Predict the structure.
Amino acid sequence: MAKHASNSIIKFADDTTVVALITNNDKTAYREEVRALEVWCQENNLSLNVNKTKEMIVGVRKQQREHPPIHINGTVVERVVSFKFLGIHITDNLKWSTNTVSVVKKAQQRLFNLRRLKKCGLAPKTITNFYRCTIESLLSGCITAWYGNCSAHNHKALQRVVRSAQRITGGKLPALQDTHTTRCHRKAKKIIKDINHPSHCLFTPLSSRRRGQYRCIKAGTERLKNSFYLKAIRLLNSHD
């Protein structure tokens, strides 16, 4: 549980991530949170691996202020411009080229196995199932979070993999844009039904005259217009 409302602590297996919102360049709450985590680990006989601990400052402003480094157990924590979080590459400028390049590279490697299966004479249905399990699952992993803000170049690179797989399988495969749309709509409906979801409050029903219609956060920038939330609102209002 975070000590400050502006901070969040995310735990997954043996990994712990501290996320902090820094306002007016005031990093007091953030530094206190890191210090509290360090003390808690010491009191509970847990050792923090500082060499594997990374710090990343996320921001889209052209001019960034200098931020003093964080220390854990007297050691400076390395500051990075990107890191892998739950399988997704996140960068400090909130762009997705690094993640896309990684996904495309892995997917192309798996296309080799798809070609080998075809040469072995496996049935088209079996080859397609292999594609869906090993390649499509990779291309669509957390797609609601990153696909909407990918560049046109990234979209083309991803779709080329799908077209290559389609030529190998010999059957029609769903385009990633269609997969993204379906996943966004499905996820939005789940969030609306779950009052405990952190994003539930972002979906506000409109007046009773427009039953089934919702509004979300203001689309002030192009990046926000392409976000999951605005995409979800458009889909909900068009389907319902």
